[in-house]
Design brief:
This protein is mostly beta strands. It contains two helices and eight strands. The strands form two sheets. Strands 3-4-7-5-6 form a five-stranded mixed sheet. α1 links the parallel β3 and β4 (39-42). It is globular. 32% of the residues are buried.
């Protein structure tokens, strides 16, 4: 799966976590992410944690129309995000991806197979 905004490809390597165990596990057990290459899509989701992780991540909260509602850059390990009430899904990306992609609130993310 690929995610993009307009002509800008944000990631071409998206893993979907849409079952209890895949959502619970997330990135646990990974030592690092490949820069610009790995993304986790968590569905349904309105908050995240980084307990047990070994690296920082960027986090994007999306509504049911895939509009960006909230972003967290460089979320450190062993933290909990706020609950974003209207969020339906979350993207966890390598640290720095929000800045590199110049993402803004209310941008619409496109998912392609």
């Amino acid at each position: 799966m690929r995610i993009s905004i307009g002509d800008l490809i944000i990631s071409e390597n998206v893993t979907v976590a849409d079952r209890f165990m895949t959502r619970l596990k997330g990135w646990l057990g990974k030592k690092s992410l490949k820069a610009n290459d790995e993304t986790l899509l968590i569905v349904p989701c309105s908050s995240v944690h980084t307990f047990g992780m070994h690296f920082k991540i960027d986090v994007i909260f999306l509504d049911d129309k895939n509009l960006i509602l909230h972003m967290i850059e460089s979320m450190k390990p062993n933290r909990t995000s706020a609950i974003v009430p209207k969020a339906k899904k979350v993207l966890e990306l390598p640290e720095g991806q929000i800045s590199r992609s110049k993402l803004r609130l209310l941008d619409q993310i496109r998912f392609e197979d």
